[in-house]
Write a structure and sequence with these properties.
single chain, 726 residues, alpha+beta, Glutaredoxin, Glycosyltransferase, four-stranded mixed beta sheet, 48% helix, disordered N terminus
């Protein structure tokens, strides 16, 4: 367990405390006359769980908690100050549902719950919606010399300054509850002994932290030669995948969406050096070979898992949510465009279908889809279980198709303790057509038998998994991600049903999440500090609007994207720095920015790519915001994985052509422009002042040269590499 330096020289129980000092060091204590007697909760009318009415899966998961959780608002801190209470904040992410185990364990300690309700002002924070607090957890853990773990318990003064904090893993079990209890005892003792010192010292620490954060942003190192460094970054990325061990350095077990998008863009972009494209093609082939037939893609329901256990794709961490499904589907559609790999298309369509079935609400919008932390064993199968459920022939076929064997199929690196001996994860060993050929039957016959077996096993798995209630508030990130996935599906397949779905969903999203010139994470009357749109949400919405504009060539959506960008520029710059949340909504005076891919794409990387699209569409991003988000981080040449979105933006900015559609373009040529690789080739509609012949398109190359083209073949030859080189 680790605290900030306020815990210096203290010991809790029999546990040794790792002491970490901050820049301010120890300070002399002075006796304080401040009373520490907390005002009873009944006086404050805070004797209930007030977050149960807030939208979102984190609050829904704790709706029945006996802890009197309060929302992350200025009013809550004001009440804490009136009551002379410290604040105990728990920061959780719905992407990591194990927080439920930690808080359930806490709730079992009735004495501790009573103490929390009586002594503290407890606040529950959804680090997905209140993104700056989610990002802050990484810095807090780093101050302790710890890797990021969630949830984070953070004790604060009523003025909003951190006092102490500790990350708790669900694996801690009962020990986690002991750590929380002992931490509480330490904080309580410090506060009772000298609250004035705690207030004063924490405030000074927070001032020092604010200075460090500002200096870090001001000293953020950016490339002075981005066109060259983009190439160097991609070269470095291609060295990170080991085709022998099947490991991707820096990925940390996460599904490598960013790397897939960047490699696909490299393959499509004919202006990238030929040797780099060749190396990227080789690496992409290895990566897809491993991923597309791995257990990361579920043969039973078609969904995809977010990350893996250990260093093998053979044993996923069985967690899923809507934003991740949409993000993987879009990446798979784009890599299909780059490689023509039919399995990538097959997986993309299955993931998209799963997301629609699982996360779409009756109104057509999408919810996040949080479930409890899964028990790994419930997702695994023995050969005996499959043979019991299916006919002998169907069982034999299924086991061959999904890699099941009697001793289990988990490699040592995935199950080093042999905890799941004789258990199997399911995976597609080959495409359906190849499996049918191996079985000596036609594909239709094989598919019919295979699907029947799949339905039987899926029902069995659903029966043994917990049938939990899932909170279904329409979630803006999930919805905007799905819009972009539909748009990518249309670009890859040409199926106009996907285009219609994308445009219809965008119309609904604008009506639901955008009001009074503001985006919200949820359409609710909740305070902006809890659901107000952060920079990340604006970036996703801008891209969703640009995606639909690109596949429909409808300038209305570019106009809305431009409007969102103008609002973003007015909200996410503070004292000349790029910040994740508007100062109006921020409760901590810290310039927290999102410049690397910690939990997802970064806000800065997404906005950097948006700047290119907005400029081409005639709605340029505000210069002040553009200067803050578009530079390529110098670190990208050494750590391209965590900056792959920023590298991708710079690759498009310096190497991709811009396609402008002229007046009276034929339907065939217009359709060809709409289906160009989404985001990777910028497109726009001509203005009156541009001299483009009727029926033609203009292609502007990074070199400054341009061509006027009037046929689909000439367009493809100009902007896409030859198919045999992909």
């Amino acid at each position: 367990m680790t605290f900030s330096h306020l815990s210096r020289h203290c010991a809790v129980g029999v546990l040794a405390i790792l002491i970490v000092g901050t820049a301010t060091g120890c300070r002399k204590r002075q006796t304080s006359s401040v009373s520490v007697e907390a005002v009873p909760a009944s006086t404050l009318e805070l004797d209930q769980n007030a977050t149960s009415v807030l939208p979102g899966p984190v609050y829904a998961a704790e709706s029945g908690s006996a802890i009197h959780w309060q929302p992350w608002t200025r009013e809550t801190f004001d009440e804490a100050k009136k009551a002379n209470r410290l604040v105990m904040v728990v920061i959780a992410l719905p992407q990591q549902p194990s927080f439920q185990e930690v808080l359930d364990t806490l709730s079992k300690d009735a004495a501790l719950v009573e103490k929390i309700n009586r002594f503290y002002m407890p606040i529950l924070v959804d680090g997905d919606a209140i993104r700056e607090m989610g990002l802050l957890t990484a810095d807090l853990c780093a101050e302790l010399g710890r890797k990021l773990q969630l949830p984070v318990f953070l004790w604060m003064t009523p003025d909003g300054s951190p006092v102490a904090w500790i990350p708790i893993s669900s694996r801690s079990g009962e020990n986690g509850r002991n750590l929380i209890r002992q931490s509480d005892e330490m904080v309580t003792r410090m506060w009772n002994e000298d609250p004035g010192y705690v207030l004063r010292n924490s405030s000074l620490d927070q001032e020092a932290r604010q200075k460090r954060f500002s200096q870090r942003q001001q000293g953020f190192s950016v490339s002075e030669r981005p066109a060259e460094d983009v190439v160097q970054s991609i070269r470095q990325l291609t060295t990170l995948y080991d085709s022998v061990s099947r490991n991707f350095d820096e990925a940390g077990g996460l599904f490598p969406n960013g790397a897939i998008d960047l490699l696909g863009a490299t393959l499509i972009n004919r202006n990238v050096p030929a040797d780099l494209r060749a190396r990227s093609q080789e690496m992409t082939g290895y990566l897809l070979e491993d991923l597309l037939t791995s257990a990361m893609f579920d043969p039973l329901d078609g969904g995809v898992f977010s990350s893996r256990n250990g260093s093998s794709w053979a044993l996923p961490i069985f967690m899923r949510d809507c934003p991740m499904q949409a993000r993987v589907a879009a990446a798979m559609f784009r890599i299909y465009e780059a490689t023509a790999n039919p399995i990538a298309l097959e997986r993309a369509l299955a993931v998209l279908k799963f997301a629609e079935k699982t996360y779409r609400n009756p109104d057509g919008l999408f919810h996040f889809g949080l479930r409890g932390a899964p028990e790994t064993g419930l997702w695994l199968w023995s050969a005996d279980e499959i043979e019991k459920a299916l006919s002998p022939e169907a069982a034999r076929q299924w086991m061959a198709a999904t890699g099941v064997n009697r001793l289990g199929n988990l490699p040592m690196e995935a199950d080093s303790r042999r905890e799941y001996f004789r258990k199997n994860s399911l995976r597609f060993t080959k495409p359906i057509a190849a499996l049918a050929a191996d079985a000596g039957v036609d594909e239709a016959t094989f598919s019919a038998t295979f699907d029947a077996s799949r339905e039987t096993l899926l029902k069995l798995r659903e029966a043994r998994l917990l049938d939990e209630h899932v909170e279904k508030s329409a979630h803006a990130v999930s919805t905007f991600r799905m819009i972009s996935a539909y748009a990518a599906a249309f670009a890859a397949t040409g199926d106009t049903a996907f285009r219609d779905k994308a445009e219809t969903l965008l119309e609904k999203a604008r009506a639901e999440f955008f009001a009074n010139d503001r985006l919200k994470m949820y359409a609710s009357d909740a305070p902006d500090s809890t659901i107000g749109g952060r920079a990340f949400l604006y970036a996703l919405a801008i891209h969703a609007a640009c995606d639909v504009a690109d596949i429909t060539l409808d300038s209305e959506w570019n106009e809305w994207a431009g409007e969102l960008a103008r609002i973003a520029a007015s909200r996410f710059i503070s004292d000349g720095l790029f910040v994740e949340t508007s100062p109006d909504d921020a409760l901590m005076a810290l310039p927290i920015s999102d410049r690397s891919m910690l939990f997802d794409d970064s806000s800065a990387g997404l906005l950097s790519m948006a700047e290119i699209r907005l400029k081409a569409a005639g709605h340029p991003m505000d210069e002040a915001l553009a200067k803050l988000v578009t530079p390529l981080p110098t670190e990208s040449t050494s750590r391209p994985f965590v900056h792959s979105d920023a590298v991708l933006a710079s690759l498009i900015r310096h190497y991709s052509p811009v396609v402008t559609v002229g007046p009276e373009t034929s339907l065939e040529l217009k359709s060809a422009v709409e289906r160009l690789p989404l985001r990777l080739i910028v497109r726009r509609i001509s203005t009156v002042s541009e001299e483009i012949p009727a029926g033609a398109v203009k292609v502007e190359f990074p070199s400054g040269e341009s061509q006027i083209l009037q046929t689909v073949d000439s367009l493809h030859q100009a902007v896409l590499p030859p198919r045999d080189s992909q």
